Amino acid sequence: MSAPYPDNENQRLLALQRYQILDTLPEQAFDDLTVLAASICDTPIALVSLVDEKRQWFKSKVGLEATETPREMAFCAHAILSPSEPLIVPNALEDERFASNPLVVSDPNIRFYSGVPLVTPDHFPLGTLCVIDRVPRQLTSQQLTALQALARQVISQLELRLNLAKLEQTVVQQKCTEEALLSSVATNRALLNAIPDLMFRLNRDGVFVNYQAPKESQLFLYEADFLGKKVQEVLPSSIAQPFLEGMEQARQTGELQVLEYQWSWQGNTSYWEARLAVCEGDEIVAILRNITERKQVEDELRETLKKEKELNELKSRFISTASHEFRTPLTAILGSAELLECYSDKWSDQKKQVHFERIYSRVKHMTQMLDDVLLVGKAEAGKLEFNPAPMNVIEFCHGLVEELQLSTGRQHTIIFTPQGSGCKSDSSPDLNLCISVALDEKLLFHILSNLLSNAIKYSPVGSTIGFILTCLDSHLEFQIQDQGIGIPEEDQPRLFEAFHRANNASKFPGTGLGLVVVKNAVELHGGSIKVNSQMGVGTTFTVTLPLITSSGEKEIGME
């Protein structure tokens, strides 16, 4: 059954054409996203599919040879009818819309389909990021959330391509404009009369002989300070010298000369652009424009582009790293599962248990990575919740340490030390602040498990991890100290930025999101985190969390 056209089909097609993406060559940024989608959802096929008037065309594809299919056969044509929600088909043979579809009854024999619409900022669905399997199935909620996050990244890449194209067009247009201005001296003279900027006329000796100041412009000097005087008598030497050189160059070449300079007058600093052109009598016309605002905008744009480039590089690095991080445990899980399938009847219980524990460990590692990705996404969207409830912090820390010791095979020793007035064994609430304190247990788990896991990961085998809990009247202090490789000083200011990893951490597995999760969880508690690290000696993280009353307010004495 072919899908009907959306009500806004004409506008949707115009939105698609605006991106100039159809029938373009493969691009790594889109291919990385489809690889990651297939890996996260564990499907053999993943596509970035764009639906035009008569077909669906694949900008990126994994597990499929075709580059396009007719629109009437496209699952994605159905998905764009409801752009606010994904289209999920658990079993195509049981869905009357697709049961007789050629893509279902023959190659590639689609059974399962999940497609997240690619919706532009102005709310037009262009197609989908979809994953496909040849067997009926369902996605987990985590996989679906991750797929939706990747779909947003596809749109971000489309927007980036569009903005870069506009920037290139602007540069070309500006160059054409400048060439037109330089095309003839006569044209330049006519333009000078119409330009609403400060204009000065200087004779061949470099003396100011006349000027014109439009009403909206203000002179940066008094008339008596420059009329009848030479350039070097009026302007500072740092400006006068390039000004005179520009005038001489204009006379020799007959071409417009442009220079920029900084000017300070009456306590104010401004930026100016001077355009120098030869006029009759070998004189020079200087057109001066205040470009202070433009320079500020250029600086801001340059800084924005720099940050955007850094962010895109970090995101690309994260996609590559995450793909590897998921592939490694998946390979181990597959290997252990196949061995168990083939040799389970021959192995001892102890040997089988080793492989079961390996599968459990890898699944738990993948789950933690997905949790980090989802938590960062929630934090950026402002949807990360804070739900404090009374808990026994000491008992919680003991349990966490035991769990980590088991998972690391006791290759490291974690020494947990509770201290302070709240650590006494008395049952009085006033004396046992750590035994009944309101914290968000899930967020606390992310804080401590990430910091302790990092301490283990970056420390040599056989070393000791110090874990100190200090209970005070107004706050709790968690201190995690390792004997690891340390953090370079130049990396410490960016330690809590998403996707950023220290220069000396490249050989260790990780996505660069763990400390971002920690910082967000700490800030939701109203707390703070600081780090003290020395290369080759070790690192100490200190987390301070204010005590929360049952009503959810901080104890008196805390800011």
Descriptive notes:
With 559 residues, the chain is of the alpha+beta class. The protein has 14 helices and 18 strands. It is 42% helix and 21% strand. The strands form four sheets. Strands 3-2-1-6-5-4 form a six-stranded antiparallel β-sheet. Strands 8-7-11-10-9 form a five-stranded antiparallel β-sheet, sandwiched between helices. Strands 13-15-16-18-17 form a five-stranded mixed β-sheet, with helices on one face. Strand 9 (257-265) and strand 10 form a beta hairpin. Helix 5 packs across helix 11 (349-380), helix 10 packs antiparallel against helix 11 (349-380) and helix 11 crosses helix 14. The longest helix has 52 residues, at 292-343. It is flat and about 105 Å long.
Features:
single chain; alpha+beta; 559 residues
Counted beta strands = 18
**Major sheet summary line:** 6 strands, antiparallel
- State the low-pLDDT regions, or none: 422-431, 549-559
* Order of strands, widest sheet: 3-2-1-6-5-4
- Tell me the radius of gyration: 33 Å
Which structural category do the helix and sheet elements fall into? alpha+beta
- Per DSSP, the total helix count is 14
Helix percent band: 40-55%
Shape: flat
Mean pLDDT: 82
CA-CA gap between termini = 63 Å
Strand content: 15-25%
